[in-house]
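Researcher: We're teaching a course module on how sequence relates to structure. For the next exercise, students receive a sequence and then see the predicted structure as tokens, so they can try to spot secondary structure elements on their own. Here is the exercise chain.
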Amino acid sequence: MRRLKFWALAAVVVMAAGCAAVPPSSNSSASSSWSTDASATALGQNPSAIQQAPLATPPDVAQIARDDAMEMQAAKQAADHADVLYTNIWQRIRAGFAIPDMDGPAMVPYVNQAVQWYSTRPDYVARMTERSRKYLYYIVQEVERRHLPTELALLPFVESAFNPDAMSSAQASGMWQFIPSTGKHFKLKQTLFQDDRRDVMASTKAALDYLTKLHTMFGNWQLALAAYNWGEGGVQRAMTYNQAKGLPVSYGALNMPIETRNYYPKLQAVKDIIADPAKYGITLPDVPDHPYFKPVIITQDIDVDLAAKLANMTVREFRSLNPSYNKPVILAATKPKILLPYDNATAFEQAVADYQGPLSTWTTYVVRSTATPFQLARNLRLTEATLRDVNNIPLRTLVKAGSTLLIPKPPQDDQNVSKHAVENAVLALAPDIPPGRRQRLIAGPNDTPFTVAHRYGLSPAEVAQWNHIAEGGRFRPRSIIVVYSRRPVFKQHEIILAQRDKRRIVRVADRRKITHTTKRSLRYSIHTSFRHDLKVAQR
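Model: And here is the predicted structure for the students to work with:
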């Protein structure tokens, strides 16, 4: 028994030591280190006295894998052994409200304005809440597991209207709106094939980690939420300024951007509507207090279209649960998980096991030397449009050597893409300066961007762009076509163009001459008639 107590005490000490190491922060507006003392930033104390924690040692790969396995197991257990305690998810959320409402005279108008905005747009609220039914149970489960206020589960309503594909002008992505740098700090993978900022489970974990750290810094959920929107550095500077002036350091007293000023009032408005929807004329969808999805590990490369088919879902429904995958294939090298509706998960695993054909029709290709997409597509026996579309290659760009492209898999290839290829894949592009000089052609009766490009060894997409025409369009006969090519145009085209230009110059000169003569004649006739009409007395 003594030995058991000794080991239990040792475990507590190790856990306490592990919780003391916190990573450095990185947010969209500012960056600063986490505080090791939550009380140092509580309201009323000097924020300039915040002590900076030492940088934490990044976890090794094995530790990350163990953590991921534990989270995966917890998610499966939550899905398989969910205890329904409430009639619907809204009752469960209401029962966990714990953040104080804003009731000061400075902030009440902002809350009322936000409530008015939502309550006068019932269609928007209906779409938003209906979209949330896929994700709410999991988010609420994670919030409660961490003993956090359930208001935080409503934050995606404010951030993205529960749209996992949302992208802001600042490149913040996903339901929780992580910018690239903050996402990387919280271990959200961002590769050519996957962006975990849009992953439902991974982004929720990262957002709750971040919010917990912010609450530890500021000792106040309202200020923590302000920092989530503005950046902890911005909130710290505003608190330091107010403290130096002897002013309060509450949410309503700080000088902050207007977007942040309205941020928590929007969340409180959503909270008020969820608390009493009938009061505002809003009808909430019936979302059961039961898991909507269940995670499934992928062990073989599989096309998104085929995965949706085997799961008995539409591609749109499949992507709504798995928006983090950027390409038409899910690569198994990093042991990804897909989310499927609770009732579809088991059937999907059996359908994959029974499937006889190839699960994936895509593989990767590393570019050996810098080339245009047109040249690469021709060498790989693809259409340029397919290569550009799958790999998101814009017009007028070169693909640099060393870039990784996704291409159709040869029929005899049944191998998964290697882990090395997935983890080291990059796509490097460079501006493509049009080769050769600007030349003009006369369009024939059947000329299209494709025929012109084939004639001069150019890209149909570029010919279409140079002439502001659709790639599948047709040129008007005898119209002017502009190309950039080192290959000379037909001499007869140059002669025709020169003759046309000469005739055009002559016509313009004749028009000017005629117009000038007409004006002189008109002025003379008016002057003469005016003199003839004068009376004798006026002469």
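Model: If you want an answer key for the exercise: Confidence is low (pLDDT under 50) at residues 1-59, 521-539. The longest strand covers residues 437-442.
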